[in-house]
Amino acid sequence: MTSCLFCRIAAGTLPARIVHEDDRSVAFADINPKAPVHVLVIPRDHVATLNEPADEALLGHLIAVAVRVARDAGVDGSGYRLVVNTNGDAGQSVFHVHVHVLGGRPFGWPPG
Description:
Layout: H1 5-11, E1 18-21, E2 25-29, E3 37-43, H2 56-73, E4 80-83, E5 99-103
Antiparallel strand pairs: 1-2, 2-3, 3-5, 4-5
């Protein structure tokens, strides 16, 4: 999908600071970080929101990659947050499923 920003990053046609990639996913630094560690983990295949039917194994893979990213960034011991926004009211601005990996500072609850 050439109009999708994240599809272009996954295809390598748009530059990003890649921290992990494999045959099913890509993880890259957020260009507008909300924490010292802020990485997005995306599927290579375009899935707009969690409301679309998706491969459960792929979603599990995205979470496993997010955990690996947190470990590699050194925030697994102190704590990190995984966030998936779905649709506009939740804050989704790029309509390609992505898992935010946030860490490196304390977070409050509830969020938002």
